[in-house]
User: Which sequence fits this backbone?
């Protein structure tokens, strides 16, 4: 499987985790580790397009969270994570990162409210 290097963390080593082949794993020089699921990255790209002024703040907050918690999995959907069995990890969505920063993007992918 060819790994895609996300530009946001291109300066960090990317490790392969055979238990989680669809998730990118990165390591800071401090030894702190984080995983980025593809759907999380897709949503991060949405913030980059819709709120470009906020992307640096979001990335700094992600780094702070990782360095505080040491092992973090950034998941695409709560309760539907594809990254499994990461010992000691906390699992966070894009909303978990952005909502406390008061950075919001409307999710226009949900269905209609008009009913039948």
Assistant:
């Amino acid at each position: 499987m060819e790994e895609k290097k996300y530009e946001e963390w291109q300066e960090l080593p990317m490790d392969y985790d055979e238990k989680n082949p669809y998730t990118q794993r990165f390591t800071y020089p401090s030894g702190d580790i984080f995983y980025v699921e593809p759907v999380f990255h897709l949503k991060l790209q949405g913030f980059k397009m819709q709120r470009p002024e906020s992307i640096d703040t979001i990335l700094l907050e992600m780094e702070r969270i990782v360095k505080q918690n040491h092992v973090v999995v950034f998941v695409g959907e709560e309760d539907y994570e594809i990254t499994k069995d990461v010992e000691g990890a906390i699992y966070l969505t894009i909303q978990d990162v952005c909502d406390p920063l008061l950075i919001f993007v409307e999710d226009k992918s949900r269905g209609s409210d008009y009913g039948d």
About this structure: The chain is about 30% helix and 15% strand. The beta strands are 14-15, 24-27, 33-36, 71-74, 90-92.
